[in-house]
Amino acid sequence: MILDYEPAPESTAIVNLRDSYGLYINGEMVDAISSETIKTVNPATGEPLAEISMAGPEDVDAAVTAARAAYENVWRDMPGRDRAKYLYRIARLLAERSREFAVLETMDGGKPIRESRDVDLPIAAAHFFYYAGWADKLDYAFGGVSPKPIGVAGQIIPWNFPMLMAAWKLAPALATGNTVVLKPAETTPLTALLLTEIFDEAGLPPGVVNIVTGAGATGSAIVNHPGVDKIAFTGSTAVGKLIQSQIAGSSKRLTLELGGKAANIVFADAALDQAVEGIVNGIFFNQGHVCCAGSRLLVQEPVAEEVISRLKRRLETLRVGDPMDKNTDLGAINSAEQLAKINELVQAGLDEGATIYQPACELPETGWFHKPTLFSDVSQSNRIVQEEIFGPVLSILTFRTAEEAVDKANNTPYGLSAGVWTEKGSRILWMAQKLRAGVVWDNTFNRFDPASPFGGFNESGFGREGGRAGLLPYVELESVANGAGR
Amino acid sequence: MKVTVATTPVDAVGLEQRAAAFATRSIKKGSKLAALDLSIRCIDLTTLEGVDTKGKVQSLAAKAIRPMPGNPDVPSVAAVCVFPQMVPYAAEALAGTGIEVASVAGAFPAGLGPLEVRLDEIKWAVAQGATEIDIVLSRSLFMAGRFAEAGEEIAAAKQACGPAHLKVILETGELGSYDAVRLASDLAMANGADFIKTSTGKIGTNATMPVALCMAEAIREHVNRGGSPVGLKLAGGIRTAKQAWHYLVLVGETLGETWLDPALFRFGASSLLNDVLMQRAKLETGRYQRAEDFSEA
């Protein structure tokens, strides 16, 4: 029947994978000094895709040295309008090759091609376009003060949005005149490595961006390198805390974008059909591998049953499976390790007496997959309510009054995002005032725009990415007074 | 009258976002053939022109029965939809085929004739052989906030239909908001509509994906609350096979497979049929045919 939708796989022929990859240092792909390697695999099949270098301290040192030279000799003093030209070129080239990047992103990370094609890549390109626009207008960004670059930025990004996070990190750093050593996650390094082709094509001066692949040890080498002036990290709260302690006492600047346990709050007067879509998008987008995922549903009691029944019905139409299929809604879990973590927390939910619901979908036999999962009959003290699961698992709680919703929403160590669903405008404004979250979405969820700052409160981190606020982590503000004023 | 102004609100941004997502479904080969045949089986092949004649209606009926002469695999359409005066010709031409005779009635398309006259028109069309009646919601009463009266008119029309099925046209392009579309849907369903229908095809704005989704969600809620299954008819502006399968995806994923059937879903269209036939021939032969290879109705 028509709704079975025959397989509609996107072709992978557009991607040219190498057997192995070196590091991108000073404008060239070079062999790593470290001989350690790791294989990056396709999580939908478990098949290895390519061999990746695990950069050691000497490799990181070479990258930082190249970044320092490029900073001092080329990039720092280049007029903003000229830096902008490079960023515009990168943005255009990325947009032109977006299908290739989307396919590779899905192969390496497991997210549905529908998302890498329609979300990750368009927003990544938009981010470069947006910050290209700031590069020659920095003197007007903060009024009366002159923003100066910081120096060499060490940027460490996660595996959930590899290309998009690279864009979020690179674009503002480069626009403001900093140079970069970027480390993609060890399970998803391929799009960042492909991005080096775009840097070459754009004629980006050597050393402005250096890409070193590796795991925690490589990240630690960047964090602890004395030649690095600023660290920008997106990842887990535990690692964020470790980084913060490691750079204590140094002059390194730090921004952290860490975990979350966002509340998606549905009031009884909400547009319920659209709220259900927002709940689904909030927790099942990218298999729930989203730091700002709406992983706690708070629903007002009069409509709780109604919302849950609509939600269950909607889950039946979600298509879980081959991420490369254009009709897939939920793709693969990024790694065996992450799947084990999700399974452990789901078991904890069952042990704590929560009621589980999963649709009757079949999972592929190879690769790592997890059914979309709802937990009801949960309480605020349960682990599945407190801890970030980072998977397609939603915990459903109820509330009676707006005050109670706010109390429950804020009762978490995190504070990255929140969603409010109501048709009453004044209530949205009141809620937004009370919620402790970096982003509050009203009547929508998981909407990203380069012009809108993103970042967290509390243990979700500090610093903002996107918008004018996203320039701040990469500049020193210098007051220039000439005495003529008085 | 069960519905007043309290109805489930609709968020326009979310609705349009969701509606757009259906159009990204990729329909291949076997699924596409099934979608094309289903589209044909769900068409109310329509002519609603002042110049309609017996000859025109007979020609349309012939096309309805055998859309692709020479290829008996191509199914017949669901119904032929005409003005009341054309009903006798349609009924005669379609007798024994199983194809429904649909008639607009009730001072179509404005619906502003005297109620008694409109009800008589319905009864007359049914007596002449119409098995389905398409009336319009009184937008005059609806926009004035006189929802109860608008609903009573629909209930009266339902009674006048007797055994014939009642389709209520909301003329969504005139209602101004999705909230109003949802309310009008609820109003029509609560007062006995067998089908709710988007448009007359006589104004600029006809069926759209978000409006179709809005009405499908209203039907879903109606059924979840214990109401009997109500059909959905999308009319006006649907001209290509691709548009048709986007709508089928929307209806199937929102209301379930049960609605992917002419008993509960219709396209009100005329030019759509030949585009579907052309795509169908392309699937079977691997080549596009000339437009001249497909007969005009």
Can you tell me about this structure?
The complex is a heterodimer of chains A (486) and B (297). Chain A is an alpha/beta fold and 486 residues long. Chain A contains 14 helices and 20 strands. In chain A, strand 2 (23-25) and strand 3 form a beta hairpin. In chain A, helix 2 (80-96) packs across helix 6. Chain A is globular and about 65 Å long. The termini of chain A are far apart. Chain B is an alpha/beta fold and 297 residues long. Chain B has a single domain, classed as TIM Barrel. Helices cover 45% and strands 12% of the residues of chain B. Chain B contains 11 helices and 8 strands. Chain B has an 8-stranded parallel beta barrel with strand order 1-2-3-4-5-6-7-8, surrounded by 7 helices. In chain B, strand 5, helix 8 (178-190) and strand 6 (195-197) form a beta-alpha-beta unit. In chain B, helix 3 (54-65) packs parallel to helix 4 (87-94). Chain B is globular, with a radius of gyration of 18 Å.
The CATH homology group name of the largest domain in chain A? Aldehyde Dehydrogenase, Chain A, domain 1
What class, by secondary structure content of chain B?
alpha/beta
Kindly estimate the percentage of residues of chain A that lie in beta strands according to DSSP.
Answer: 15-25%
What is the general shape of chain A? globular
Could you give the distance between the termini of chain A?
Answer: 81 Å
The low-pLDDT segments of chain B are 1-5
Output mean pLDDT of chain A.
96
Question: How would you sum up the major sheet of chain B?
Answer: 8 strands, parallel, barrel
Helical fraction of chain B: 40-55%
CATH T-level topology of chain B: TIM Barrel
SS-based class of chain A: alpha/beta
Strand order of the largest sheet of chain A: 14-15-16-13-12-17-18
Unreliable stretches of chain A (pLDDT < 50, length at least 5) are: none
DSSP strand tally of chain A:
20
Q: What's the arrangement of strands in the largest beta sheet of chain B?
A: 1-2-3-4-5-6-7-8
The number of distinct structural domains of chain B comes to 1
Oligomer: heterodimer
